[in-house]
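Cross-check.
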Amino acid sequence: MSANIKASTDGTQAIIGVGGVDQMTVSNTGVVTANSFVGAISNTNVTATGSTTARTLANRFADVANVLDFGADPTGAVDSSTEFQNALNLIQSKPNGGTLLIPPGTYKVNQQLNYSNNNLSILGFGKGVSKIIKTVSDPTGNIFNYTTSTLKILIVKDLQFQVTGNPGNAGTAINATWPVGLGASTCCHIANLDFGYFNGSGANNRFLNCLKLKGAAETSITNFSSQFVDSLDTTHIRLDCYNNGPAYGVLMQHIFINGGKYGIHQTGWMEMLIMQSGEIVGQEICILCDSSASLIPSVPPGRNPVLNVESLHLNGKEWGLKIIQWDAVMLRNLQLYHGVGGGTDVNGGNISIQKSRILSVIGCTFDSPLALPIEDFGLSLKECNEFIIATNIFRKNTRTSLYIEDCYQGKITSNNFLPDPNTNYGIYVQNNISPTTFNKIRITDNSFVHYVYGIFIQSAPSDFDVLNNNFDDIAGVPILLGSPVNIGQQISIQGNKALAWQRKTLTDNSATPSVSGAQEGLCNLQNTNPTTITNFTDGYPCQELDIRASNGNTTIQNNANIILQGGVNFTMVSGNILFLKKTDSGSNNWYETGRLT
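Predicted model, tokenized:
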């Protein structure tokens, strides 16, 4: 069947004919007149420009399920849940699923929409153009509820979701669940979505979850924005993964989130999670990545292989970023703040990493911009190994800029520690793990300004170096050793510089003075009476001493504890300097490495 258009004999009308029968006329004033059998036009074959196959108009229009074709109200005055569900039912009945098209308009959907076991694309015309609103409280319900027991694809794009009318908790906007074992073949693509609360007075209007995905693999989430105020139970993006794999990969880009409890909350085993660019602020925890929680009780949790977070601004009430049990953590170019004010901030900090390994934190800024009545950390590492912390800036953390507990095999280098005056610690190290040959930590070439203590080593790993660091305006001491270190540990503190290193004046007239707390091993002897020193106590393995005499009242005795060159005693005079180094063996001896006379 073909269509033809011709002019009337008087030239005032266009006549449209199908199959040799005139179907309708269009006047030159725009008036359309149709014959009684015009309905047959839906069966007219039409060939699209540039294509080769003719199809009926009915088939062409059925390529997508347009919610307007099912009677949905684009003004938002009437609940369109039934019309949306009817459209979804049609798509679900097709062998390969299809597309739900949501034209420009505002659509009220107060009942859960269900779809299962087929592919589905939900397409709008853009943020602020195609809107879905919910006006009722529904804490356990969803707007779109997608479930599947087989390998299927979900795509949601170009929509805005709103909670209006002050209903309170509106449940979950998009909830999707895939079964265990589909692995890397599952696909979920989320793009250009916006979520929010409206109507001014509705401060408690929110979705419990904006986007909740369980078991999704090969997932991308891009251009996602969401905002909530005073809604501490809201999670904007929730990712739950099964612990048996085999593979899950999620890419997030251009994410902008404000308020709620969690910005992004991930649990379970995931092969790769990449988050790039955006701003997540105002949550209790901006991003929580936790692979220690198991969704399958019979499968123990393991470390996730790859976590990459870069080019984000994070500002949380407790933590900006909290990571538990991941491998290969790469953090780059993050701008981090702790605290949003208003009395809602709690103890925490910028980044917490626990039970993870192969970490790199590079080019980040750690800050707490407010004068908060809480204790906070810049970067906290607990039970981590194989890490590098480099070229970061630490500012205004009220307790500790870098906290290290029970960690090993790490390097901290080329960082600037620049807080306001009287921040307690630049670096605080507390290691309670048993010493091994693999426990080395090196702190080198960093700059410290305005601390009570630059580096505080409460307890150290077996091999620990503090080398070539610069200290300025330190209220207490640049480097402080806390509890005694163990025999067999190798600790080197060398090449560090401070504007005001102070020599430790050893106990007057003591035969066994303590050298604990001697910065860079600098000591001063100013005994008021003739004194023979037989040992220096409280030193640590491999410690180096620079001992200067201010008078001639001190003799250093050559014995089993102090081994002097030539094997003879050294009676010092004012200005003499003796250099000693402690052995790293159980004998615990000092031996002379040089002297200035």
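Residues 97 and 119 are 5 Å apart (CA to CA). The mean pLDDT is 81. Passed to J.P. for a second look.
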